[in-house]
Amino acid sequence: MLQRHKADANGDGAGPAITIRREDYSAPAFWIDSVDLTFDLDPNKTRVLNRMTLRRNPGVAAQPLKLDGQDLNLARVLLDGQCTSFKMEGQRLVLNHLPSVEEHGTAPFALEIFTTCCPARNTQLMGLYLSQGSFFTQCEAEGFRRITYFLDRPDVMASYSVTLRADKALYPVLLSNGNLVASGALEDGRHFAKWVDPHKKPCYLFALVAGNLVAREQKIRSRSGREHLLQVYVRPGDLDKTEHALQALVHSVAWDEARFGLPLDLERFMIVATSDFNMGAMENKGLNIFNTKYVLASEATATDSDFANIESVVGHEYFHNWTGNRVTCRDWFQLSLKEGLTVFRDQEFSQDLADSPSARAVKRIEDVRVLRTTQFPEDAGPMAHPVRPDSYIEINNFYTVTIYEKGAELVRMMHTLVGRAGFARGMKLYFERHDGQAVTCDDFAQAIADANPASDLARLLPQFKRWYSQAGTPCVHASGSYDAASGSYTLTLRQSCAPTPDQADKQPFVIPVELGLLSASGAALPLHLAGADSTDSAPASAPTSRLVVLTEAEQTLTFTGLGSAPVPSLLRNFSAPVVLDIETTDDQLLTLLEHDTDAFNRWEAGQRLMLRCAIDAIADGANEAGASSHIGHIGHKVLSADLIQAMRSVLRHPTLAPAFKELVLTLPSESYIAEQLDVVDPQRIHAVRQAMHEQLALSLHSDWAWAWEQHQDSDRYRPDAPSAGRRALSGLALHMLCCAARHQGAPLWPGKAYQRLKSAANMTERLNALSALVANGSELAAPALARFHALFKDEPLVIDKWFALQAGTPDRAGNRLSAVRQLMQHPDFSLKNPNRARSVIFSYCCANPSAFHRADAAGYVFWSERVIELDALNPQVAARLARALERWKKLAQPWRSAAREAIARVAAKPELSSDVREVVNRALAD
Length: 926
Ligand code: B3K
Ligand code: ZN
Known about the structure:
Bound molecules: (3S)-3,7-diaminoheptanoic acid, zinc ion
InterPro entries: Aminopeptidase_N-like_N, Aminopeptidase_N-like_N_sf, PepN_Ig-like_sf, Peptidase_M1, Peptidase_M1_dom, Peptidase_M1_pepN, Peptidase_M1_pepN_C, Peptidase_M1_pepN_C_sf
Structural class: alpha+beta
Helix content: 40-55%
Enzyme class: hydrolase
Number of strands: 32
Pfam family, one: DUF3458
Family: Belongs to the peptidase M1 family.
Shape: globular
Cofactor: Zn(2+)
Largest sheet: 9 strands, mixed
């Protein structure tokens, strides 16, 4: 039985979902000063008594009070203690007979609303729901209206006190935001707890948790000497997996205080883990709720990436305490105000914690890889939207990589333009101006600029803000020419940005380009930029890297004093979120790969070289008559001998960090290769990439064996960056060796992998071994999978990995889809648990292109069935899956027509959530 009102996600009952526009923003007609909530928790019928104090907003014309609500049963409404009339407008509760402005002015009045709801039937996991017998809430963006009637918008900030009452045996722990002020026993085996939040907050930051939970805790003292209690709550059997998350929280508190002077403003800060959660985690004030995936870790069950992700998500949610909670968003169009800034902060946190220059570079490369493989495609597809969108139908669809990751890049560019100290000054001014307010992206950029009046950001602020209003990824085309007679090098940089939905013409962006020049032998050259340097600057004192800020559609830079043609190294450390289209020769790229002082561009040179080879091989195939996707037609010579040799040098390099080597030696992903092409043949891309992989495996066989032997760790497990890097490189080596073994018919390395699977002392090595066997179709894969399942059958997060590995593995025998359908029949599978649904369905539809894009369209049929099935349970998760085919227009035939048909089949369903409806309608739009 569904509780959701389809095609009415706005909760206003006004029929089909409507478009919300940023330009229509108006301040609320009422403020809510205080909220006193009493919950009688019961899975089937939870009673909620909501006593609020409200007053009219003097700045807004008098009008009725319209409170948001969704799937609530209304029992009583009292105005100042008296019965009052009300009416329903769709799902909204409307009160027309409030004290008039004439008699009452803007004096406060009291409203008491009594409702019930049914957490046990809440499968969409928004509002109040049950997970494994405990109560949890998720209110962002618009879930609070599923708990009680309210002005469910982020600019209404109120003081909360919350009383929870529940059966003591079933729900011994009762938590909400703020401080515990009272607790005790009630009749009939029930008990209560009363919490008061000392800070005003928007309702999306409200949370409660009730259940059988245990906590690991630690007391810390802040710089000011205040003591705080940090707690991580989990189910009783999971306590031994909480130390890493707790330490990540301890580090987060210290980091925000040290780097930005932002202290913890609460006596107690709690994290609670649940296995049923739509996303990663949620920053509710003082009571963060997390997906177990981002809390629980032991060396036996979690990989190095899990450990790193936990650190960054714990940091992210904690940093929201200031960027999001103390200063929040005026409206949901400003979402990147808190998300972009907080992603930037968590990225910086991870880099600062890792501490070595090489680990910082590795983290930067990983972040850019996410941006380019997920956000660039979003920016080029039907869901493209500016970092500050102008309109939406379903706000849940706009928790995107554009808002988060591109938003973080915008903050990073500001940081680059004003410098580290200048940025810290800007943050200080931002909090001085806006603490306790609900503000806009403009307010943030203005504060950073005003704190740095002499900076390029201040000078260029109106133009810089185009990054917030214009969607699409800018392209910078670079071409250079050297004039031997004058010893000068002229670099012409042209920027452009393709049209996106609703935005045909784009104005030039402010693009910070960090650059350097190398000699042909790899030496860093002093940069004399004509027109920028004083004439008397001595050559030796000239910098070897500098920042150039592009503002025009075309700009020319001239560097002087050069004895020979230099090799340009542009966009160092990925100084702007753009596509750099640069004319370089393979030799120049090889020089950069070998010598660039900028680690990012060193990695980038290797990626470009491999990408070139891939694109050439794909084009060759497309030119062959009856182009075939079969690997036999590609052969094993996609990568040039020079490139193989360069890769060998990196692998064997005496001083480069193993983590960096692993990144260099990892081929560009199939989706990144696809992004470079106008027409995408997923099978051909897979075949070419596979051929490249095999070529690397075979040509560097003895080097991989060396790498495997050299990077074994016998020490106690530690998830730090150097140890994780060694495991990453030895894991890649094992993959390569098992791949080579398949070609050579040699059982040695699969045998070693199987041994490692049995004896590994940590999950990283165990999973690397398992995936080397599964991905390479070894006959040991089946027994390895069975053994792995038997070992971890009681560890849901590990079983997620077991499912994901099988659903995400390439299709060797044309049977991956039937394997996926079988996985869905497995007793451990459940569509209702988002982690499990993602581990099977998303791993197949979103992370396994060659198995998903079948010529017979069966993958697409599977996709459409799952979107529809999931939509009835959980529209947010369904809408994410619905996006798997949004780039269908780029596909070659026959996939293109088949994909369109599958999307149309979903769109034809009359009973769709507004979440999925918005995604499929956009995908089908011209
Ligand atoms: N702010 C939450 C995301 C909420 C998503 C709502 N659909 C987590 C985060 O970004 O920290
Ligand atoms: Zn966030």
